[in-house]
């Protein structure tokens, strides 16, 4: 009802008693209340105190009413606690009554209860600070102050999420009458989270190229959490191209400026004439026998804010090309989460940014089935969307091609579509050459009891969720002929370059190497379906296996009885390999311990070294992180120095340190990967 004048009230209601002036005051308030926050911008990973003040609206708050402060589940903002005010990430509440009008009854609330729940609301706003009004009510105009990371007892505050976001949202919901049904308090609390100061310089090149093939060079700066820094003027890079050898010949020197606005990035191209090893901070090898011009690097599992990612689709594609230096990207929409309108809008973006010879983008979806129904499978549409419309969200016959639709704007009822996995096979098996299905492990682990040999050509064995060598062994043991893929499954806006945060994304994102003749959609698609791929843990590593007659990894090779088959392998890296292994369904069939081989060639003066590694995951499923607290004691020995390696190098909060002259201590986390230290 509109706000009534005194005359209108008298005419309609007659004579009655009410607190003086309260009617007009109440009608002037937002019904569900209002929010204020002390923060306008934050730096990724910083420690801060966030103060949110909620003013009760015209609704008032009943005994048992709820308020929730929520944010998205993939944020790795440090987990809050409500038990110890002296510890970090403590959340406290304060109640301040508003001024009373003449004749108004004071609020009767006796206390406020608070707790934190990682799944306290609906996806994507699942993480929730929950406030409950206890034993009484609250009046319009009363205030609740929520201190997130309360510093008044000496803590550092709360640690902000470690990745940048153009518009971080904290959405507050209210149940003013205690019915457990919530409405959003508008507007959201929103602020940007920006990158911190420069902590390192990253140089990205192909690891190996043929002579005469242009090799792209990407250089950018990052903060301590692996975010690309931005808006730093007057920075320049001196790039030296050095021919590795006894003379370490400097072939070329360039001084190149970084971009002054936007990302601090510089891109260039080099061409190598002669075979050999070259240093561009990272190593580059030139090999005339390479079966392709150069390996292509791809991330086939990229989310954006269309569904459960961070920042826009355009931002993510720009990051992939400019910062991560990727050649190929596979856009991925959670099939139940994407709306038809957003899907069609993203297809138009893909049509614009796809550039043969420079940057290839495939549209795709993630079929989000539970493990009992087949588990997560990415569907990559290989045909050009300019000429062939992907069969989503409906197939050519008009059947639903998604698992179901369930999102913020979605239907009230959950109705299954293509479910279980058998029906996904039935949807796309009519044209296997136009599709690529990739089983993977994320939140919903794929189930390899299902397998379609024509559609499923690659298996995803590494993402930000973890490393899954066990999945590859399972596939090999079952006899499934699958190539390998490693991608980002990136929810944090850093496809091809994301490093671990402090939540469920526990490892550096992977890369899929593609052995294609050209950087063109058709050639890349053909190589992917031919299983001519390799998977890396995010570094520009290269693995190539071939036969003398030109077969490459992924090819079917027919061998006669008693015929000898020679496999020649080339592995290119930077930091050194520990071992090389080959497996088949019977188990491990080849093992080279390169550490031991190095020992046999070491001189007598070489210092003694002990290598200790630890790793693995707690479970196969979503919350798999294993937490390690350990000590390595060397009685009677003196430690000269230590060199940590593995995933610990990518996480600013993990630590391996020398504690004394004969002790090393560590606190790290692994998600199927490993950490280690050379002592």
TrEMBL record:
**InterPro entries for the chain:** Pol/histidinol_Pase-like (IPR016195)
Query: Gene3D superfamilies this protein is in?
Result: Metal-dependent hydrolases
Q: What is this protein called?
A: Uncharacterized protein
